[in-house]
Structure prediction request, 587 residues.
Amino acid sequence: MADPEKSIATGIIISNREIFKDHFLMILRVPADFRASVPGQFVMLRREEGDHPFLGRPFSIHSLYSMNGETVMEILYRISGMGTALIARLTADDRVTILGPLGRGFDVPVGKKKIVLVAGGMGIAPLFYLAEYCLEERRGELGETVLYFGAQSSHHLFGLDRLERLCSSLKLSTDDGTFGYHGPVTDLVAGDALSFERNDSTLFACGPYGMIKEMARIAEKFSIPCQVSVEEKMACGIGACLGCAVRASGENTSKRFMRVCKEGPVFDTREIDWNWREG
Amino acid sequence: MKDNNSRRLAVDIGGLVLKNPVMTASGTFGYGEEYAAYIDLSVLGAIVVKGLSITPREGNPPSRIMETASGMLNAVGLENVGVRAFIDEKLPFLREVDVPVIANILGDTVEEYCEVAHILSEAEGIHALEVNISCPNVAQGGIDFGVNPELAFKVTEGVKNATDLPVIVKLTPNVTDITEIAKSVEDAGADAISLINTLTGLSIDIEKRIPHLKNITGGLSGPAIKPVALRMVWEVVRAVSVPVIGVGGIMKAGDALEFLVAGARAVQVGTANFVNPRSTVEIIKGIAAYMERKGIDDIKDLIGTLKT
Prediction:
């Protein structure tokens, strides 16, 4: 049993700035003994003061590191409703309650050389952490890390300078054609997929539902394993509310439903029945 | 909890003695194991597990939940692993914890309720049953058991005949007169009554003009429903003589105390578990601190002491 007292942490905000319209980067100080996380895991975050919003909100960990003897966590997010709008108003020294790290993160297999990251918009949030992990923790063991990053418009391609240092190459796209390939990022991946050595490559994707569903299709077509981080509304983050269900695919009939917070948020695309929900 | 505290806080619910009046509400605490990393489960009065049906239920497609003003709507759809998987896979963990386990049960027909009740009665480690009667009766064209006094009577009577365990019946607030249903289940032999289940609600995305929940409507829980729950508990306490368990929007010790003063012999903490997994423990401590402050030696001297 984990130490109950340590499972809930207080974070103190260092900065919470808007990087472009409705998109924010929160940097916060967390306790030194904040449990180690795996890229792809998430936290439930809630303002410490006040009863509004009522429930915590789930956020992928964008980065977690030590700086000047302190543990610092970064969260990259977009305002998508009332809860995130209120979180966006927090400023330096405000305190938040943090549950986590929670869920199952990415599993970077031993012996695979090529890491292919595919991000759609804010889907870059956990993949940035994964790129850091591949470079810092698995250096030498892994070969190249390639990032495919698509977004609505050029200014939505956030953090390219940092990403350039972490990845061997960047392939960029925008929906409006203001930068890189004009069209969905999955087009770029599908176009290159034949060149991926299928026994030596792993795909890691995060983005809107339609995009990760398309990644599932590409993974199947080219027989390349693909792990995706799935987003769903959740109340508790710890497996109790069952708000965040996804249906298991036929190959995984022992459980008919899976919880994004507990069995996920990272799934192998083959584990999910992609026809369960629309959108 | 010290022995001293346990004695002062102990309550009796239809023959089941709880070390304190704070239990978890069904559907908000999984099968207990989800919270073991956050609290010592053995300090709880009881654990009420997620509702169980005769066969596993998949539940509704997402979106299943939506936050609303001071509360949340859910339409999980009674997703559960089924009674047999519960006994085989979930109950062994709970048997190792020194805490009474109350199994919440549900069904489409009276026969299904009885079968689930019977199976659970044969299993070791279940201390009471809580009957969720807020389910559509398939044989009666889908009308909820809990909104019709005769159907509520039949399902309660059936479950009582199928088990020797204490039977708690959980009432829905979505009725005209909740005391009528309460009296009916008491007449059918219920050992205790818990209320309220969620209030049916709706939330709409005005940009897309679609419901926020895929199921269209959902059950409202959280602080928003507490005054309604409290009023209904107060009404039911005066209408029946069996113990009443208060449920609805309890977030803090003060909320739980309101229900106890209104006459509830115990309470269930639900949605608060989602917000803070340690809510139950903090509420138990808060009740003890209140009694200390007020010089109340035994919680029985507090229950039902509302001055009107």
Notes: Chain B touches chain A at residues 27-30, 34-40, 50, 56, 58-59, 61-67, 70-72, 74, 76, 79, 214, 222-223, 251, 271, 273-278 (CB under 8 Å). The longest helix of chain B spans residues 279-294. Chain B has a mean pLDDT of 94. The radius of gyration of chain B is 18 Å.
